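FW: tagging you since you asked about this chain on Friday. Here's the raw sequence from the shared folder, copied in full. Didn't touch anything.
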Amino acid sequence: MKISFLFIGLFAFFSVNAQLGREERFESFFGFQVKPLFPSSFIGAENHFFSNQGYNVEIKQKVGYSFGGVVRVALTDFIGIETGINFNQRFYQFNMSIPDSNISLVDDFGFVQYDIPLNALFYVKMTKKWYMNAALGPAVGYKPSSVGTIAQPGGKHEFINIGLVAINKKINIDLTGNVGFEYRTKKSGIFYLGGSARVPTSPLFELVSRYRYGTYEVDNYGQIGGSFLSIDLKYFIPNTGGNGQKFNHGPIE
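HL: got it, structure written out here
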């Protein structure tokens, strides 16, 4: 809820500034973005494996998705700042096994995170309407709750998996970077296609995986990272000046 209020405040600030003259404001744009999230071993562990007393757990990160609003502030024609708020949905697959007892099970759960990035943005003009840009900066993430699943394959066998988020670890700061191309039009807005990477500075959650058979219990513990690569699709709404002209005196000439 606090993150939502912060985003609304940012958008209101930029909207008010957009009504001022060129000498008194920075040009700002509001848009939307959506991106699939891909696990990658290049920037972090894609799979995790834990074993304790004959109980094995392998965790595989699967493809997720993200969407949200974006606010861009153009400081000059070639430098800007980009922020917003995003909803991130991650998916994980658990392969659990007790090899000595010939018992195995596959289970899944999803993990939700919100984030507010703050990126420095740099443009390279390629043609009149085509630009290349790159961005780099931190992202403040918020993890609202822990998640968990319980699976009972039959008899007294029970597998419990918990993605634990401690109360003092709900907020984290990650590093983000992206590069892409955008097509700018006066009437239709800005269309962007690019790719990005996210490198966490702390684990996404703590794994607690328990196998239980009657009164017998064995646990596995581990830290799960949240790094990913993504394909970014963004669209920025065209600004409308008081005289009805689009992108009047903005970075798009």
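FW: The first helix runs from residue 2 to 17.
HL: agreed, and The first strand starts at residue 27 and ends at 38.
FW: great, closing this out.
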